[in-house]
Specification:
34% of the residues lie in helices and 26% in strands. By secondary structure, the chain is α/β, with parallel strands linked by helices.
């Protein structure tokens, strides 16, 4: 089940950050968001309307008197079926226009005449951003209910470094998706484990379970989008954690256990996605074990079962487990769910999910099995959390 397509008006104002808007449109369209681009005259000096038209698949509007809208009132028509308007980049001048209700071009008039939410992604030189006038304007926009996305800090086109640059397209996509996501988990605290663990044999060798961490990270992002306060306990993975979550690195199974147990109090939901190693070396060498022609044996100790221990706490949160199997998927997953006394477990075949950006899973609870067809992991995450919200 694909996420319902949302309609977004993307307003582009004059500034060098307009080049990022091209990538933003590409990502929005890829995410099944219908994008209508509206540009100011000055924006066309930085990037052409034909570029934005090619990426959005729709004609781009610039002037108040554009004949492309049948009723001759584009400032009214373009926003009426939009779910939101995003201005990215939003220059200091355009932000001032919004504050004072000026309507001297199509985009500013459209914003004044809107009846949908307005999101603004500022982009300007750091001195312009820090100027008291700009800060007053931003404060007023927030007071008026406008969502301010960013800005970011870093290198600027003028050669200076500081706060004021527009967020990257990937970051804006995350924030737009979060805006459109129903807040089904508002007020809930969610703790998620993700990635594999490394059980060190010596400083350079380890036992591990293969895991990219992509599914756990997708669930963390989706839970945050749904309004939850998210803590992500992350094992070994190269992924960057979502900026909106509290990320705790825990490479070994023992470190993950300690991190979970020290943060589990007052959590409403626990989702154990991490591929935690079942065993770890009884003894770890402090120095690299030198290679020799002789055989080498390794004694292993059973690790603690994090999910089972959390599920058996006196005031346990709602627990969701994951079962990655290579055969007999539903049989093994249901046995695991019952053995650990879980209300819900997510089952998937290892070969279909390992390292992929997509997944197909089956949800198992006391009422039976509920398959979710193959889809991007972020979409699987959304559907899983919607199911959890309904169970709660």
């Amino acid at each position: 089940m694909a996420q319902t397509s949302k309609k977004l008006v993307l307003g582009i104002t004059g500034g060098i950050a307009a080049y990022k808007s091209a990538e933003l449109v590409r990502l929005l369209v890829k995410s099944n968001i219908d994008v209508q681009v509206v540009m100011t005259e000055s924006a066309t000096k930085f990037i052409t309307p034909i570029t934005m038209q090619a990426l959005s698949g729709k004609p781009v509007f610039v002037g108040m008197w554009d004949g492309g809208v049948g009723n001759g009132m584009p400032h009214i028509e373009l926003s009426r079926d939009a779910d939101a308007i995003l201005i990215a980049p939003a220059s200091a001048e355009f932000i001032a226009k919004l504050v004072h209700g000026r309507a001297d071009d199509l985009l500013s008039t459209l914003c004044l005449a809107r009846d949908c939410p307005l999101l603004v992604a500022p982009a300007m030189n750091k001195q312009m951003w820090e100027n008291p006038a700009t800060q007053r304007n931003i404060a007023q926009l927030k007071k008026d209910g406008v969502s301010i996305l960013g800005p970011d800090t870093g290198d600027q086109a003028c050669g200076e470094v500081g706060l004021g640059r527009m967020l990257e397209a990937e970051d804006l996509l995350v924030l737009v998706n979060a805006h459109f996501t129903p807040k089904l988990l508002a007020g809930k605290r969610v703790l998620i484990t993700a990635g594999g663990t490394l059980e060190m044999i010596d400083p350079v060798r380890a036992i591990t379970n293969l895991s990219s961490g992509k599914m756990g990270y997708a669930i963390a992002q989706a839970a945050s989008d749904m309004g939850a306060e998210v803590t992500l306990v992350s094992g070994a993975t190269s992924l960057a954690a979502p900026k909106s979550v509290n990320n705790i690195r825990a490479t070994s199974s023992d470190a993950m256990y300690q991190a979970v147990m020290s943060n589990i109090a007052k959590q409403d939901i626990f989702i154990g996605v991490a591929a935690v190693a079942d065993y770890s070396p009884t003894e770890q060498s402090t120095q690299k074990i030198k290679k020799s022609t002789a055989s080498h044996s390794l004694e292993l100790t059973l690790n603690k079962d994090i999910l089972a221990e959390v599920a058996n706490l006196p005031n346990a949160p709602f627990c969701v487990g994951f079962a990655a199997e290579s055969e007999n998927l539903l049989e093994y997953a249901e046995a695991k769910r019952q053995a650990k006394k879980l209300p819900l477990i997510v089952a998937n075949l290892v070969a279909e999910a390992m390292g992929s950006d997509e997944n197909s899973v089956t949800l198992l609870d006391k009422n039976g099995s509920h398959p979710l067809p193959r889809a991007p992991k972020i979409e699987i995450a959304r559907q899983l959390l919607q199911y959890v919200a309904n169970m709660l």
